[in-house]
């Protein structure tokens, strides 16, 4: 809208000058219309260019020409490595149920798509320290890559192994276990489950802090490697300490004729280890109906494995013990017992079958040895034990 303004003439008598002034409120909308027109023109031009590019080069090439500049802040491992790498730290926060479930995830194909060197898992069920640890250090030396070590001790025990020790950081999450009760079998299953997390572990040996090897590493490794059986004692004892411990409430899962007894210390292959860890059929029966004076660690695994896979069992243990002195526990050997004659008696009295053939090598380990036996054992190891 324009307004007319009359400017008075100066004295001298000229006509008045009329000026016109434009209202700024009318100029602003015109500017917006111009900007909108420019924007619309750009959009139309971009649309024509896009249609032309799609017709001549295709949608895929146009879309992929715009690449994301996002880069992850970490390098992802190969997918297969996530499955075949053993845990870098044995300590974890899984419950037993979670651990057992994880440990029983097994491949169905027999051939491995990578180079797999089978290892022996040495599982130590202990109260705390390993007084005979130095003899084991000597035994394992130079055989890295062929063994794994796992320790289950009292949960309050704090190991203080040096970083160069084979036992350094090899303790698993543990709970209290009592001799003759189901908590002892729980500890053994816990060891097996943790060892199963390493796909290279093929054989699993249960040992105590009082055990020693009777041969060098190579002899033991090849003995187990070539065996067609696992070494778990399982026999039918008709007496009061065998069938006399059977409870009829365990039927129908376990009948009296299936009831077996055997020593606690075993060696099993990977298949049987999975069978033990995944069991939910026999466990409730043994937990409820096999209590002192039924010592569950002498019956649970021998009975279950005899029912499930009797053809895979050698029905004997690899661990030598001396029951000749009588009592509820085998003899313990100290410093004064450790002589060459002592070991000759152990080696000389062995008769068994190995792969269904007669053999004079029946025991690969022995117990029970007191801490005082360490020094003479170290002195005799190269001459008697072979390492």
TrEMBL record:
It is found in: Membrane. The keyword Transferase applies. It comes from the Eukaryota. The chain crosses the membrane at residues 32-54. One of its GO terms (cellular component) is membrane. GO terms for molecular function: glycosyltransferase activity. It is a single-pass type II membrane protein. Keywords: Glycoprotein, Glycosyltransferase, Membrane, Transferase, Transmembrane, Transmembrane helix. It holds the Pfam family Branch. This is Core-2/I-branching beta-1,6-N-acetylglucosaminyltransferase family protein.
